[in-house]
Amino acid sequence: MKKLLVPTDFSDNAFLAATYAAELGMKQKFSLHIVHYYTARSSGFDEAELTEESEHSDILKADLTIKDWAGKLQALYPELLISYHNDRGLLEEVLPKEAKREEYIAIIMGTTGATGDKNIFWGSNTAAIAAKSPIPVIAVPNKSLPNELTRVGLLTNFKQEELITLQEFLHIFKQDVHVDLIHVYKDTEDIETVNSRLESWVFNIREFSAVRETQICTAPTVKDDKELDSVSEVISKLIAENNIDLILISRSRKTFFERLFTPSVSKAMALELQKPAFFGKTI
């Protein structure tokens, strides 16, 4: 049985991602493996938290927490096979190595983590994992999501790897979908030429038997528009306007995801990912 690899920092946001993974696992008959990576700072008990049991053992705080956390998820999905373990190391360094094991089919993780003194800047980690992972990564926003997935948006620059990403998505989700081709072009480009290239490229998408319908979504970058000051902002607007359920991002477009967590020049705030994003594998 193939496994979904689900990293956690024990936050509510990570639990939302885990429930998304559980829903997918139930539907496609995958099991879940939950993993938590700790550092020396995060692994020990505070003095006030010590109990007689833990005082005389080498059980880490994370060992107790992950058991309860996985148990909470198991209670919601009693028929789902769930395993877990803790390991020492930095998430972005150790998780891609774990993902190389043959049984894993995808990583599913949140885009934000815990707050306050436990903040590990999860969004930055998610972007780093998406850039390094040998298997697809599904990034889940911190919000409740509908169970139905009918419409996906494929970011396109007419690259062959975009077709590979679509194939990877269909291999995991195993369902018919409507595909929106999302393309942002420079305002200096000829729109007729852009549309002609898209009409030619869409034939490649229609070759997939699971693709029932296609639609082309385009918009130019406008230099003097203060509200849409980068490609990522324009893409986000197209995604919202077309009610897309999930975004497909190939290797060549991963900088788009990184921009979601990087303040733009004119806004001084980061964009928030509102839809799940599926990243094609790096290797």
From TrEMBL:
Domain of life, per lineage: Bacteria
Organism name: Sphingobacterium suaedae
Lineage: Bacteria, Pseudomonadati, Bacteroidota, Sphingobacteriia, Sphingobacteriales
SUPFAM superfamilies, per the entry: Adenine nucleotide alpha hydrolases-like
Domain called UspA: residue spans: 1-141, 175-276
Family: Belongs to the universal stress protein A family.
Pfam families: Usp (PF00582)
Protein name according to UniProt: Universal stress protein
